[in-house]
Amino acid sequence: FDRKDGRLVLAHLLFAYVALLLGGVCGMLQSMVKSGSITLPANIGYYELLTAHGVLMALVFTTFFIIGFLYSGISRTLGGSLTGVSRSLGWIGFTLMAAGTVLGVIMILLNKATVLYTFYAPLKASPWFYIALVLLVVGSWLSGYGIFAQYRTWRKANTGKLSPLLAFMAVVTMLLWQIATLGVAATVLLQFIPWSFGWVETINVLLSRTLFWYFGHPLVYFWLMPAYMCWYVIVPKIIGGKIYSDALARLAFILLLLFSIPVGFHHQLMEPGIAPFWKFLQVVLTFMVIVPSLITAFSLFATFELNGRARGATGLFGWLKKLPWKDVRFFAPFMGMLVFIPAGAGGIINASNQMNAVVHNTLWVTGHFHLTVATSVALTFFGIGYWLIPVVTGRRLTKRLNNLGIIQVVTWCIGMLFMSGSMHITGLFGDPRRTDYTTYNDSPESILWMPYHVAMAVGGIILFISLIVLLAAVVGLLLAPRGVEEYPIGEVIDTAEKTPKLFERWGLWIGVSAALILIAYTIPLADMITGGTGSPGYKFW
Ligand code: HAS
């Protein structure tokens, strides 16, 4: 692996792990406060910790890890090293994002940005928190341009050839990010910054939430797609099998690009001010965005089964015995996949209007995203880290470190079982999300919730232990003996059909994506801005 590129990738990964650790400390403390097990010192607020936890884990850990991983993928598959332009953009992006993170975290720790990771108006933070967000987003844009630049250079030199699958997926993921972040950029620049500086007195709450979710939903697929890159391309190689179908994998990614943006209203189903028709339309589109995940499940089962049968497996589940259970590079993402089955089912429940009325704003939703992003995605990222750090540093994943990794994954799963399991159950009893410790004047209903909060805290402690093990493993990897680890990239099975060139007609897909966004959002946004169904009397502010 190119050494200069290795440094860029490693910087992203290590930054991500530090954010994860800090966010993890907040997470554990929070779960203990919420269960009434500890009381925080008077100068630290519960919601302050909750904001730091969400921002550091959901926004910072993910974005840094993803960009590092995407850069590694394009360096490896598009020419063997990054071009000067691409690498420089990567570093500038990294620097801006790091500056944004530091500024944002300072504001949160000063209790000047206790607005949670969704920074819903009318909660107001210091303007510097929003400027920190701008730095984070602009930095990620530049990193994205670096990825596009590398891809363009490769295509020019390889006209008519099909791009490597991993690189194609990196480009789609970044494209999704560029389109999605337009929403958060609009609300931060046009609404939050003028309002928080006091240049305008009010803010159009509904519009700001809508622009946030225009970004917020595709954000979750921006987390998921790199995990899918690992499931589709890396895992087949690790298990000694092959990719079931290049075309199907590309189709899934294009469908994610098209359908993951015009669906933000499924986070706002219980909000007034959006006409039911538009909510219905976006729910239909939400059900469309489930299709690529079903395609993914099908492809993975096909890869596992074909691989198992080629090794002599028989019966319906004989292939399970042929998988390399003791290899953390496989075990971690596999546990992520397994958890994604109930996690995805929970998402489908959320998306259904009537059931959303039951679960919205309860701990069920928190349980949902601790399974999706904090388990399926996080475990996959951990699994990637176990081979990617050795690849970029020229070291070896020793047996001991591998076993440490397995322990880490098992403890993470146990911790999450306690934590997310109790969140799901107590959420169904109406237990609200995002609340400090309270028994609501000892109301019988909330007393019933308390044992689940204690179970959540037990989960939180186990998860924190898992994070410490992860940290030990990462340090171990950085100091491991020198050697050459392979960057595992799967090959497509011989019997797979030819991939149509259509998938790389970017103008077409950007056009269809723009059309869907315009259909789903133009009229509701116009209504919100002109005061029709939105916040009456408000325009942008
Ligand atoms: Fe979600 C809320 C709907 C997926 C994250 N979601 C959230 C929030 C987050 C989040 C962070 O419709 C909270 C935001 C906040 O703070 O308010 N979600 C869905 C739907 C899906 C979905 C329909 N969510 C995700 C993913 C996330 C994520 C992925 C992060 C990475 N979500 C919602 C809705 C809400 C919501 C509503 C709002 C709730 C409210 O009221 O506030 C779908 O994409 C899920 C599709 C997935 C599947 C599963 C496919 C399974 C696969 C694994 C195969 C396994 C194998 C191994 C092969 C259909 C691919 C098998 C081995 C064996 C041995 C069996």
TrEMBL record:
One of its GO terms (biological process) is aerobic respiration. Belongs to the heme-copper respiratory oxidase family. It comes from the Bacteria. Residues 1-480 form the Cytochrome oxidase subunit I profile domain. This is B(O/a)3-type cytochrome-c oxidase subunit 1. The chain crosses the membrane at residues 8-30, 50-71, 91-110, 130-153, 165-193, 213-235, 247-265, 277-301, 330-349, 369-389, 409-430, 450-479, 506-526. Keywords: Electron transport, Heme, Iron, Membrane, Metal-binding, Respiratory chain, Transmembrane, Transmembrane helix, Transport. One of its GO terms (cellular component) is membrane. It is found in: Membrane. Its main location: membrane. It is a multi-pass membrane protein. GO terms for molecular function: cytochrome-c oxidase activity; heme binding. It comes from Cohnella lubricantis. Pfam families: COX1 (PF00115). PROSITE patterns: COX1, COX1_CUB.
